[in-house]
Design a protein that fits this description.
- The chain is built from seven helices and ten strands.
- It is an alpha/beta fold.
- The protein has a single domain, classed as P-loop containing nucleotide triphosphate hydrolases (Rossmann fold).
- The termini are far apart.
- The chain binds adenosine-5'-triphosphate and magnesium ion.
- The site of adenosine-5'-triphosphate has 12 residues, from strand 1, strand 2 and helix 1.
């Protein structure tokens, strides 16, 4: 579906998550600047610049005479290191929002900036390369390449970006270890369970050390045990690497992993909870 296969996720069962801890891990993606002190919902300190900014984004689908306004004059800001959960009824525009934010689907109006760069003013080729370096994706149906082994799936974004196969494989193997699949590196997706496939996808999402991970119902196809494993990984690995996460979910347990919730109804943000929704 998405030919450059920049998609993915992670795990490591740890102790109870404390949303207030998010943002304390600074990495090379966190751009320090004064001026965002006290921004609503941000829990990581006064000096973190937005890593993703949507301004006045509009998206309408037309089929024949029918017109669906999926996103309407939509504004959204994500700070470096944040974990935001997107909820809302089916058809509200959650996937569309992720695709537009991730440079996969073009908005009709408005701007999308990732790390200060306008994603939709780039050429298609430049945008694909930018996506591979700055964004990691995780999808409900994993989107692994069936013919490739786990390690080849994870290293693919690096190889596509020109990294020599040996270095790319070494980095991919490190990620597979971190998601607990070091012993499954040579398996193909069909030889893995659903939870394992999604852990491979998490590893792939993180392999290029992106500043943002976009996850669309990453647990939508998993049992509760595998869901917990994948969510713990997503949270802990993104936290260690300082990546911000935007995760769409219909699952209440998954929604508690976020430190902020964006609720969408009819293409508009009907509520953005400033309070962390993760229970201590
Ligand atoms: N390519 C398309 N052509 C026409 N309409 C589309 C297209 N993609 C999405 N839509 C419509 O846009 C609206 C929003 O779709 P979207 O997939 O973003 O919803 P969602 O919130 O992710 O829903 P779900 O929770 O079911 O995944 C829906 O009404 C859908 O039918
Ligand atoms: Mg969707």
């Amino acid at each position: 579906m998405f030919p450059d296969a920049t998609l993915a996720v992670t795990s490591a069962v740890g102790d109870a998550y404390r949303p207030a801890d998010r943002g304390k891990h600074r990495n090379r993606h966190q751009l320090l600047t004064p001026g965002t002190a006290g921004r609503r919902g941000y829990r990581g300190g006064p000096s973190v610049k937005p890593i993703l900014q949507l301004k006045g984004v509009g998206k309408t689908y037309r089929r024949g005479d029918e017109r669906v306004d999926v996103l309407v004059d939509f504004d959204f800001t994500l700070d470096a290191g944040e974990f935001v959960v997107v909820t809302g009824p089916s058809g509200a525009g959650k996937s569309t929002l992720l695709h537009i934010a991730g440079g996969l689907d073009a908005p009709d109006s408005g701007t999308v900036a990732v790390a200060g760069q306008d994603v939709w003013s780039m050429s298609g080729g430049a945008r694909a390369a930018f996506r591979r370096r700055n964004l990691g994706f995780v999808f409900q149906f994993f989107n692994l390449v069936p013919m490739l082994t786990a390690v080849e799936n994870v290293s693919l974004p690096l190889v596509l970006d020109g990294m020599p196969a040996r270095s790319a494989d070494a980095r991919a193997e490190e990620l597979l270890e971190r998601v607990g699949l070091g012993d499954r590196a040579r398996h193909r997706p069909a030889e893995l369970s659903g939870g394992q496939m999604q852990r491979v996808a998490v590893a792939r999402a993180l392999v290029a050390r992106p500043s943002i991970i976009l996850a669309d119902e990453p647990t939508g196809n998993l049992d509760s045990h595998s869901s917990t494993e994948v969510l713990d990984l997503l949270r802990s690995l993104s936290d260690e690497d300082g990546a911000a996460v935007v995760m769409v979910t219909h699952d209440e347990a998954a929604a508690r992993y976020g430190s902020r919730e964006l609720h969408l109804v009819d293409g508009r943000a009907s509520a953005i909870d400033a309070a962390p929704i993760g229970k201590p």
